Structures are given as structure tokens and as C-alpha cells.
Amino acid sequence: MKYDVVVAGGGPAGVAAAIAAAREGARTLLIEKEACLGGMGTVGGVPAYGPFYDEDLPLVGGIGHEVLHAMMEDDLIPEKAPATRWYAIDSERLKLVLDKMVLESGCEVLLHTYLSDVQKKGEEVVSVECVNKSGKFTVEAKIFIDCTGDGDLAAVAGAEFEYGDEEGRVQAGTLCFKIANFDTDAFLSYAEKSGEDGNLHVAVSKAKKDNAFVPGEVKVCGMSLYADGIATFNFGHVFNIKPLERDGLSKAEMEARALLPELMRFIRDYIPGAECAVLVASGPRIGIRETRRIVGKERVTEEDYYARAKHEDGIAAYNYPIDLHPPIPELREEKEEESVYITSRYNHGESYDVPYGCLLPLHLSNVLVAGRCVSSDRAMNASVRMMPICFGTGQAAGTAAAMCVRERILPENVDISRLRSLLVENKCIIG
Fold first, then answer.
1. Is a pLDDT exceeding 60 seen at residue 82?
2. Which helix (H) or strand (E) holds 130?
3. What is the Cα–Cα distance from 94 to 91, expressed in whole angstroms?
4. Most distant CA pair in the chain: distance in Å?
5. Handedness of CA 163, 166, 168, 173 (dihedral sign)
6. Nearest Cα to 270, choosing from 347, 190, 337, 368?
7. 78 pLDDT band (50/70/90 cuts)?
8. Average of per-residue pLDDT across 126-136
9. Which of 218, 305, 346, 416 pairs as cysteine with 319 (C-beta 3.0–4.6 A)?
10. For residues 162 and 216, what is the distance between their CA atoms, to the nearest angstrom?
11. DSSP letters along 268-305, please?
12. Which run of H or E residues covers position 139?
């Protein structure tokens, strides 16, 4: 199997990278270990996309924008899901949208396929070894793009990486879930009268006052609505998670599922409209916020965040706050209003950008990275991990990869002004 571009990982970054490369004429293969594309928006069950817009100003355009508006065409309750802020995800609809977009681009797709090894010649990755139901097989390519979130391809190929905080701890994970038999109108009426929001601050405050909030829980819970009678939740933390250890995810998944009855108790007792709600689905896999950060030729940092930094080689812009969930309960912030997530928020019209060099791992000549594993420090990673900006870095990586194939150059030799021009031409918002 020989391709121009191979993309590992089919989440937002991987989908955008694969579509972008294929649209630019590169013969592209997208490899995904799960049964569908979409990453945390589908297999992770995350209830909503973060903001694609800063009120009236677009932040992330291009392929991410296409996905968002394809979803909006079939909104079941559009008046309850404004496009400018958090957008409720119908995961089944999203699967179909992404299948259609990827196949129409001309990209080939292998689901249920794992990356198992990498073959190199010096600093060049020559091929990757994969495994699925057919057994092991090798795929060659000119350019490889790591969109695995965990930086698996780059790490196996020998890239340097950082992991977690100074003590090797990563942010808590969350198993998202969906409930049904939910009285949507009753909840919206309550929300209007009480001032309740999507993070359920009112209900959580009442439960805490009653000393009845979920024991050990550290934050309010995020909820979204995409259809009458259904609500989805980003709620519950698994601490001391070790997602890269052999049994780390197994332990985390089982611990997260064991929390669900207690989370449902709070929901039924304190959220009007949910008195008779039933749990219909979780996950199907736990959401991971943090693992490897690949060390690149450039690095975007907390200092860049607070400076609203713009770079000559900026390829994607965003403005989401620094959203660090504690790795252990003891590090939780006592007052949410004093958390970095609140105090780091930008004003309207402000943004930072991610430089192209953050997509270029050191000592790997024909590999790019995009999505959560781009080169950043821990604080900045807590912003660039969001799904909308992952679409942006993914599209930049896929476009650059196609330029490399067409011009027979390496990623470090891409003409940045031409890359940026292509991204603008393809309606990306790059700052």
C-alpha cells in the first residue's frame, strides 16, 4: 500500500488533515482505530463543540466550519443550539457528515485499524505497520500526519515529547453520557426563571448547599440539548488517570462507569425535567484531556496566550481560555470564579495563533502533527486541545502535506506565505 499522505487518527484534526490533503490532489489514506470518525465528538460522546465564533466573528473557518454548518442543516431544535457559541453535537448525525465529507474528498479510509510500528531511514519515516482483522500490513507514504491526540506515530518514530505536569500527572478524564426521557421544555422553563446555564451552576450550588453534590466532584457539569427528550453530559472526573500505561484506560473506564449511578442521582434530584430520566449511553470511551505534547521546531506557550501572540507563520487562530482540570482532587480550586479558566478569558475580538513550526516534530523530516499533540507547553495545551482549533491545525497540516508532495519538498521547506494563502483561499480563519 503506497500513498502520498497517510493520516493517523480520525478525530477533528485527522478528518481535516485528510480532507485537505485529498482536496489538494494528494493520494491520501486515513487510519482510525475506532468504528467511526469524529474522535471525542462521536466515540467520546462530548456533548458540544466549543466555540467556532467569537460572538459575531469567525474563529475557525475552513473544513471545521463546513462540518459545523452541515450539522446545522439538520438541527432538531435549532433555536436551542446557537452556532456562535457551544454547539450541541448529535453524534449519529456527525458520523454521517464526516463519512460523506471524507469520501467525497477522495480520501481512502481504514477504520478498526491500529498503528503498531514505524519503519525509518535516518530522520525519514518510510512506512507504518498497521494491524486490523486482516492481520499486520505495511503502508508507505511520502508524508505522515500524526493526529492521534496522544502523538502515537511521532512517539513510536522517536520524537521527543513532554507529558503532563512536572510530576508526570495529567488532567482528570471524563466519561460523557446521554440521558433520555428528559422533559426538555420543563428544563428550559426552569432555566429561564432561575438563570440556569449549560453548566448547571444553579442546580450544582443547591446540591452543594444541601451537602448532596457528587462526592469528590470538582467542577460543575456541562449539559447540552440537541433533540427534545434527550440531554448529553460532560460530567464526572476520574483522577490519577494514567492513559498511556498498559492497564490505565481499562481502570479509568471501569472507575468512570462506577460513578454513573451517583451522577444520575444528582441529575434526577436537582435538574427539573430530569426526574424520570434514564441513562441510555455512555462514552463509548472515556474522554482524555492530556497526554503527550510533541516537541516541535516551535512551541506555543502560556506566555503566548497572555500576549495574544501572532506569528508570521501562524496557521490557525483561537481564543478559548486555559482550561486545566486537576489531575488529583487535592489540586482543585476552591472557588470556580477564581479559576484560570475564568481569569484567562479574552475580550471580544482577541485571539492568539498557532505557528506552523508547532506542527513539525524535531528530528522527523517527513512527519507533521496536528490536534491535541502539537508542540505547546501544558497551559497552552489546555486551550489548543479544543475540537474547533484541532480542525484548524489539521487543515493546515493536510494542506502543507499536499504542498510537499506536489513540490517534492519536506515540511520544513514549505513556503509559509503560500501555505497561508491557500488556507485563506479555502476560507480558513488564520488570524
1. no
2. strand 124-132
3. 5
4. 66
5. negative
6. 190
7. low
8. 98
9. 346
10. 28
11. HHHSTT-TT-EEEEE-SS-B----EEE-BSS-B-HHHH
12. strand 135-146
Examine the pLDDT at 428 and tell me if it is beyond 70: yes
Structure confidence at residue 216 (pLDDT): 81
- For the beta carbon of residue 311, count every other beta carbon within 10 angstroms: 18
Give the confidence band of 77 by pLDDT, cuts at 50, 70, 90: low
Residue 108, classified by CB atoms within 10 Å of its CB into exposed (0-12), middle (13-18) or buried (19+), is: middle
DSSP secondary structure letter of residue 96: H
Cα gap 232→271, rounded to integer Å = 13
For residue 290, pLDDT over 90 is answered with yes
d(Cα 130, Cα 7) in Å, to the nearest integer? 12
* All three cell numbers of 183: 422533559
Single out the residue of 184, 127, 103 nearest to residue 6, CA to CA: 127
3-state helix, strand, coil in the chain (%, to 5): 35, 25, 40
220-250 tens-digit pLDDT: 788 999 899 999 999 999 999 999 999 999 9
The dihedral over CA atoms of 382, 387, 389, 395, expressed in degrees to the nearest 10, equals: 140
Decide if 258 contacts 286 (C-beta within 8 A).
Answer: no
